[in-house]
Every structure is written in structure tokens, then in C-alpha cells.
Design a protein that fits this description.
6-stranded mixed sheet, Rossmann fold
Length: 211
């Protein structure tokens, strides 16, 4: 099994439930679902179409603030950013626009214009989306090519703690969740891509590109 994040060629079986197997990379410790057990693109989008997240939902805005608040604290005024995997309603992008930043959006299902992936950014945000990526390593490299030096990558995703907690973890039960990151995984990424890692909360990390 090849890790879809770091491409390391050695993984070990981590867990199995009634629907899927989960493997763990021996290098970056990403836990992931094997390709044969992922949803089709049609089935994946059908799951996303069930989401009803809007800016009128105060609970959802509060949820996104867990990333938006620390991100806004480190951004220079008038920064230009990309909200990657924004879903059908780019609520976070609008929150950051209200703070004076210029924000583009991209989502492979809802905002698939790839022209926005051809320009540099001061920051890239990704909230509750990276766990859905089938090829997170390729997307991470794309992010690094788009991100300006000293730019920020802001990610929200719940993190793996240990195998016992993973067994009872509701987060893995979403059929669209196929990649699960840990503190070690983000530390490996920071070291490999020369970034400074700030663990902001239980499900938020900020990484600054140093070169």
C-alpha cells in the first residue's frame, strides 16, 4: 500500500469496521482508506448535496470561527487567499472578505474553475475538506506552488489520537472521509515542506511557508 500523502511504499493495517479497512503509513502516519473502498464521484457528491451549511446558521459560523479567528490574527491587511474545498456555500470565504481580505474559492464539485489555481496566494484555507481528498499529496504540492513565501495554510480537520479512540471515533464513519491526519502527520508535512506549524486547537492547524 502506497501512502496517498507522502508516497511512502510501506503501510500497515490499522483498523477494520463493517464497511472499510484503514491503513496507516509508516512514515507520515496518515491513516487512510484504500482506493477500492472509496465512493464513486457521483456517490460522493450525493453525500455533499445533503449538507445545508449557510451564513444564516449561527452555529456553523461559530464553528468556522475556530479557524477564521486565528487565521485573521496572522494575516496582513488586504491579503489575497483561496478557500479550497469550500462546498456549495462559501461561508468562510465571505467571513474573510468581511474582514477585508480578497478571497477566491475552489471546489471540485461546486466551484470547479481551475483558473483560480493558477495564481499565487498569501493564504489558503481548507475547512473540513482535506479528509475527503483521494490524492492529498498531489493537492498539498499544488498548494505549496501557489502559496507565497511567508504565506499561511489554515486547515481544519479532526485528528487521529490513537487506535483505541479511532475504534469508537464517529469521524471515520462518514463514507466521504478517507484520510485522517494526526499531530505527527502535520509535523512531518511541516518539516518536509519547510513550514512552521502552529497547532491552534483540537481540529485546527496553521502552517507558514518559510521559503
Amino acid at each position: 500500500m502506497q501512502c496517498p500523502l507522502c508516497q511512502f511504499q510501506s503501510s500497515q493495517h490499522y483498523w477494520q469496521d463493517k464497511r472499510r479497512d484503514y491503513w496507516q503509513c509508516k512514515q507520515c502516519l496518515l491513516v487512510y482508506v484504500p482506493p477500492a473502498q472509496r465512493l464513486s464521484a457521483q456517490a460522493e457528491k450525493a453525500e455533499y448535496d445533503l449538507h445545508q451549511n449557510t451564513s444564516e446558521d449561527c452555529g456553523y459560523v461559530t464553528f468556522l470561527s475556530r479557524l477564521a479567528t486565528p487565521l485573521k490574527a496572522v494575516l496582513p491587511p488586504g491579503s489575497t487567499g483561496l478557500d479550497f474545498g469550500c462546498g456549495p456555500n462559501p461561508v468562510l470565504a465571505n467571513m474573510l472578505r468581511e474582514a477585508g481580505h480578497n478571497v477566491h474559492v475552489y471546489d471540485p464539485f461546486y466551484f470547479p474553475d481551475k483558473q483560480v489555481l493558477q495564481q499565487p496566494y498569501d493564504f489558503i484555507s481548507c475547512t473540513e475538506a482535506i479528509e475527503h481528498f483521494y490524492q492529498p499529496g498531489a493537492i498539498w504540492k499544488d498548494w505549496m506552488s501557489m502559496l507565497n513565501n511567508q504565506g499561511w495554510l489554515a486547515i481544519m480537520t479532526k485528528r487521529v489520537i490513537d487506535k483505541n479512540r479511532f475504534a469508537a471515533w464517529h469521524y471515520k464513519n462518514d463514507p466521504t472521509h478517507v484520510c485522517f491526519f494526526s499531530d505527527h502527520t502535520f509535523s512531518w508535512l511541516a518539516q518536509h515542506f519547510n513550514m512552521r506549524l502552529e497547532v491552534v486547537g483540537a481540529d485546527v492547524v496553521l502552517l507558514q511557508k518559510l521559503t
